[in-house]
Design a protein that fits this description.
Layout (H helix, E strand, L loop, with lengths): L3 H4 L10 E5 L13 H18 L3 E5 L10 H4 L4 H6 L2 E7 L5 E7 L2 E13 L2 E9 L7 H13 L4 H8 L3 H13 L3 E3 L5 E3 L6
Parallel strand pairs: 1-2
Antiparallel strand pairs: 3-4, 4-5, 5-6, 7-8
Helix pairs in contact: 6-7
């Protein structure tokens, strides 16, 4: 890793409330011999110590994995050492519709999920909040099932597949995942409905 003092040079002369490192790879030194997990943790922890020492905030821009992940922390490229050492992790993922999901998690904060849309109007470009709650992080396929159940529940898997014109086997797998994660509830007759804890 680059010498920490180089990251915030002359802090006494030019104090900073916020430092942005874009990207993390720009300050990491490749080393094939290093213990990757331990090294990742130590490098992020070193930046955390710098932030505390200089009473500043450090935002580190990093990449997500190319493969999909259900949870934001699992989507961060690299080892778990990176996310374990950070005070908070924000992951921004773009969906197939173009809208994005922002997942926020940290040591001393409640986990939050936001649906965002990048809007360009006249000379302004800004993020518009489209929704909030755990269902915002659902894949498009699972979101379709939840939305259908909000309007038409109770429904059985076969009926859900027919109404969405989807493969019944694939729909059953999605339903099983939604049920396991607590997004939907199962009735005694085998039909499903929205779980009461889903944010509306």
């Amino acid at each position: 890793m680059a010498e920490p003092r180089n990251l915030i040079s002359s802090s006494a002369a030019w104090p900073a409330e916020l430092v942005v490192i874009d990207t993390l790879l720009s300050v990491l030194q490749p080393n094939s011999r290093r213990d990757i997990l331990r090294s990742d943790y130590q490098e992020i922890n070193a930046l955390s110590e710098i932030a505390k020492k200089h009473d500043t905030a450090i935002v580190i821009v990093h990449h997500l994995r190319k493969s999909s992940a259900d949870y934001g922390l699992d989507a961060v490229a690299g080892t778990t050492g990176l996310t374990a050492a950070a005070d908070a992790v924000w992951t921004l993922k773009r969906g197939q519709t173009g809208d994005c999901v922002l997942e926020v998690t940290g040591r001393e904060m409640e986990e939050k999920v936001y649906g965002l849309r990048l809007v360009s109007e006249k000379e302004r470009v800004f993020w518009r909040l489209m929704g909030e709650g755990p269902e915002m992080a659902l894949s498009e396929e699972r979101q379709e099932i939840v939305e259908l159940l909000k309007e038409e529940a109770p429904l059985k898997p076969g009926r859900i597949a027919g109404m969405l014109r989807k493969n019944p086997v694939a729909v059953r797998r999605l339903i099983a995942k939604l049920y396991a994660d607590g997004h939907i509830q199962k009735n005694r007759d085998g039909s499903y409905g929205c779980a009461s804890n889903i944010a509306r």
